[in-house]
Design brief:
Layout: H1 7-19, H2 24-36, H3 38-51, H4 65-79, H5 83-86, H6 90-115, E1 125-130, E2 136-143, E3 148-153, E4 163-170, E5 177-182, E6 188-191, E7 203-210, E8 224-232
Helix pairs in contact: 1-3, 4-6
GO cellular component, one term: plasma membrane
Pfam family, one: RskA_C
Subcellular location: Cell membrane; Membrane
Length: 233
């Protein structure tokens, strides 16, 4: 496949690579293209910059007290060793170091297993909504388990007081579907309809509407300012 002259495909693959949704042979093939294509590397870097605000959506997780107790229990015996005994012979030292590394690895694995339930709270879908100059305005995430949309403002031009921003699902078939109004400062938390998944809705968009939203429930009446692909994570 030659993607050098296919701008739309290059942009799509760069976005999927940055998100981590490009996997297997397709990812390896894309990485081989990256080695030879500086413009493609720039496209990936631009996507990474756009997606960077997603890190702010991930709340910090404090490990449970039992994790720290396990770590302390795992390393406490080594503190009773005399420093001279550690260095007594090089062979003993390397045996000790290997055992210590194994113990630390085991503890880290335990931490990951304990934190596994937190993965369930991670977003299922994401869309980076930008303007025609690729300037990111909103990041939208969807939680398929809680059926909730979270809209975060990244950078946004001033919106007239008598206008509203409205979020739309753009399905493969049929008319656009309103998902709700957005706060130009704080974004929004909106319900996620059951059928608004990347399988049936490949893209989201934001339009500028009269105050209170579009008078037409089936389509924007004002200009579409921002749009982006709706992707699984």
């Amino acid at each position: 496949m030659n993607i050098r002259h296919n701008a739309a495909l290059r942009e799509k693959l760069a976005g999927e690579y940055a998100l981590g949704t490009l996997r297997g042979g397709a990812r390896r093939r894309f990485e081989s293209w990256l080695l030879e294509d500086a413009a493609l590397r720039r496209a990936v870097a631009e996507w990474q910059d756009r997606l960077a605000p997603l890190a702010e959506l991930t709340p910090p997780v404090e490990p449970p007290p039992r994790v720290w107790r396990a770590i302390e229990a795992g390393i406490a015996p080594t503190s009773s060793l005399r420093r001279t005994s550690i260095w007594h012979g090089s062979l003993n030292f390397w045996r000790w170091l290997g055992a210590g590394a194994t113990a630390v690895a085991g503890l880290l694995l335990a931490i990951l297993l304990i934190r596994q339930p937190d993965i369930e709270a991670a977003p299922s879908y994401v869309a980076v909504l930008g303007d025609d100059k690729a300037q990111t305005a909103f990041i939208v995430t969807g939680d398929s388990r809680r059926r909730q949309l979270s809209v975060k403002v990244v950078t946004l031009s001033s919106i007239p007081a008598d206008r509203s921003l409205q979020l739309w699902a753009l399905p493969k078939e049929g008319s656009p579907r309103s998902l709700g109004l957005l706060d130009p400062v704080g974004g929004a938390s909106l319900p996620l309809p059951q059928d608004v998944s990347p399988q049936s809705v490949p893209a989201l968009a934001v339009s500028l509407e009269p105050s209170g939203g579009s008078p037409n429930p089936n389509a924007p009446t004002g200009p579409v300012l921002y749009k982006g692909a709706w992707l699984p994570i």
